[in-house]
Amino acid sequence: MTTPDLPLSVPLTLSCGATLKNRLVMAPMTTCAGFHDGSVTGELVEYYRQRAGDAAAIIVECCYVENNGPAFPGALGIDSDHKIAGLQKIAAAIKERGSKAVLQIYHGGRMSEPLLIGGRQPVAPSAVAMPREGMPLPRALSAEEVSDMVEKFGQAVRRAIIAGFDGVELHGANTYLIQQFFSPHANRREDEWGGSLEKRTRFPLAVLAVARKMARQYAGDGFIIGYRFSPEETEQPGIRFADTLYLLDKLASEGLDYLHFSMNNTLRSSLNDIDDPRPLIDKYMTEGTATLKSVPVVGVGGVISGEMARQALEHGYSLVAVGRAAIASPDWCQQLLTGQRLALAIDSRQREALSIPEPLWFFPQVAAMVRDMSLAGGKFSAGTFNETLQDQQGDCRLTVTLSDERLTDLSMDMPETADVEFTTHFMELRSRILEANSPYVDAVTGATTQSEAVKKAVARVMMASARQRQKQDGADDAGYDVVVVGSGGAGLTAAIQASEQGARVLIVEKMPVPGGNTLKASVGMNAAETRFQALKGIRDSKELFYEETLKGGQGKNNTVLLRAFVEQAPLAIDWLADHGIVLSDITITGGMSIDRTHRPADASAVGGYLVSGLLKNVQQQSSVEIMTETSVTEIHCQAGKVTAVTVQTAQNETLQIRTRSVIVATGGFSANPQMVVHYRPELAGFVTTNHPGATGSGITLLQALGAGTVDMGEIQIHPTVEQTTSYLISEAIRGGGAILVSQQGQRFINEMETRDKVSAKIIGLAEHAAWIIFDQQIREQNKATETYISRGFVVTADTPAALAGALEMDAAALQATVADYNRVVLKQQPDVFGRTTALRQPLDHGPYYAIRIAPGVHHTMGGITINTRAEVLDGQQQPLAGVFAAGEVVGGIHGGNRIGGNAVADIVIFGRVAGDSAADYVRRRAREEK
Ligand code: ADP
């Protein structure tokens, strides 16, 4: 039932003559679900069929027009006539349901992935790589090839028409080829296709012209042609909004049916002009020409309610595209038209029912919407439960009502001081939680702390009631197969692995949120001989990785564990990728001679990405439960077998939980100053980079069982820590080409030396501190720098001399230091300090940046003794049955100094081993007990 008087339901006739029945379209979204050759799979047809019907149009995900154009795995192609039959099925499915079918077409250009194009070099307007670490250098198209490329777009339009589509959308956005021709960063040509703003518009205009020609020739009236654009680029030089308005005006003058913003929020403001808070659509409406404004414009990003869609229309959009929410709810359009709010949540058990292709299910933005509904699985002890929340506005009483099967209500007695905003935020969160029937929903923007407190309280109630129910049903007697202590990278990996091997797992975490110190891991994960290295043509060997780690560890490493570590590292990289955690970008850290530090494709810090990826996997395992704000205080054994653990909950309850085995993954002890100073008195007063949970409690737990320890005095200080906040400045910045200078404006060491050596030099300086200096290029290639800037750590200036002024440093000295370093980079020869790696590019792109740093306690290399099966060893090197450990709680692997990137490798590698070994042990024990 639709409501006819809503503007959303008003039809729109386009200039080609086609009429759209309302103002809602499904946004084109990559599903990665194409067949290996880019043809259509059956599940894709069903995916589109289910989402069509009420919407005016479905814009089908982008198809590459030439076989060297795919930019991601599982991309669809429209590069040959053989693809027409499959695409026809999608068009027919959409049209049969009553929506228009529009197909987006593109070419990846310099964004094309060499692996997906048979190892060929990608093509682009000019031989300029996308300014992201690891992106391939493309080959410039010749003028003749550019004309051929236009023709290929034309052929793609012809194929779309034959396949029965009602229109095409030319993908001039998201940094793909059409945008590259318009971009002054990607297009440095000096022929007719580049050089001036006007010439850079020629390729988009030529593509539009050929599309119009094909439409006239093969489709006749009513064929829709749209154009999608990214309003700005942040690169320098790069597309600015005024340039975009210029291009769009020219496109509009040629005639097209709609223009389509590519943004993550319909009302987003400028990325470049950050002092102008106006939504770009408002600028578009005030600054765009009359010709431009005569073309309907589509807005996209974050629309989940009719109210939001109407608001978008009020700002001037003619149509509203819905993205993620349409994946979650196939009947999204009907819901919006009938005034319902779309849920950004997907029941973990509903993938097949919702026809979501598997690759799309594991896509990070989609996986983030998947909610584990196992808490709602008909297993509560029904009743009404109260929790008290402390809030700045006063104490609030939260009442949670559970039936046998569901969370049925949630209410809060508001404190008298509560303002309207507080109440509205709660009501918003309440409807999200009830709708998802789970506390694991997105926090309400602007009320994160309040939301998290409510979510946690609801989770606590649901968990306690589920436990109560299990007790009533007698199910609790079985206990768990494995209790994992700690939910950092090692604990989460171990839990996933054990549960995939059939074990019933409980993760116990003492902090309020999972993730541990792993959340702070920045640089990446080391591994040699990986598939991602092969893709980038990096020749590496496990042997070299072994040798360099041993050298970095001052030869003190446990060589048996180290051998297992390097052998399993590439397998661990694959394991992560198989679990949707793709570390495909590669950099380098101190002490390594080769790029082998794997990090997320967008060069962001590894920790948050890794933890959220692992947590998603945990949520998808119905046999893993997680208790937060609960500490394990004792491990119980009887007759040489683990029987239970004692835990202390947030409410100070002490419980015994039965289990057959434990995996201790409690991390290191850097945040326990007494313990640090006990082993290394000279570290008294040092700040630590670690989270407060890194107290070494797992070592005490295991020592009580007789476990041995090793290398306890080997404590690493990290050289580059911002001292006022103890925030770590990632080694990736030096790995990206940054230098360290003293207050005298001089370099004093090879910055790529191991952490112990760099730290020692800094401590030896008169100020016991130094400056890390980088330029705009390094900023652009390392996302972490944005955090440093936003946290106010960074001093900025346009030139090295001005920077020196701001740092109260001798300007001539800093200028000479930068110039000397740049000469070394250009020659690629070792400098006086012996730096031979990470000589990336001269520091010559202003602005310049500096952060004041000094060392801080970072990693405890020593810890519990284990063998290569992650079995905990006692003082006589004998395994303690059923007791395993992994991650920083373990000692020996890193010897006297841990190499950057080896901690993440350690937790994933030995987390997997521990999970496997525990599951194996439990199976054997169950057989014996039969
Ligand atoms: P790793 O890198 O080895 O996985 P992390 O520091 O990332 O180590 O994670 C260890 C986790 O263990 C932290 O979240 C910490 O709060 C948790 N933890 C430490 N001691 C206990 C304990 N006794 N009971 C439960 N959790 C613990």
Can you tell me about this structure?
Helix 6 packs parallel to helix 7 (241-254) and helix 15 (420-436) packs parallel to helix 16 (448-473). The chain is 35% helix and 19% strand. The protein is built from 30 helices and 37 strands. It starts with 11 loop residues before the first strand and ends with a helix. The strands form nine sheets. It has an eight-stranded parallel β-barrel with strand order 3-4-6-9-10-11-12-13, surrounded by four helices. Strands 19, 20, 24, 25, 26, 27, 36 and 37 form an eight-stranded mixed sheet that branches. The chain has 930 residues and is α/β, with parallel strands linked by helices. It is globular, with a radius of gyration of 29 Å. The model is unreliable at 1-5 and 373-377 (pLDDT under 50). Bound molecules: adenosine-5'-diphosphate. Residues 485-491, 508-511, 516-518, 631-632, 665-667, 693-694, 697-698, 887-888, 907 line the site of adenosine-5'-diphosphate (ADP).
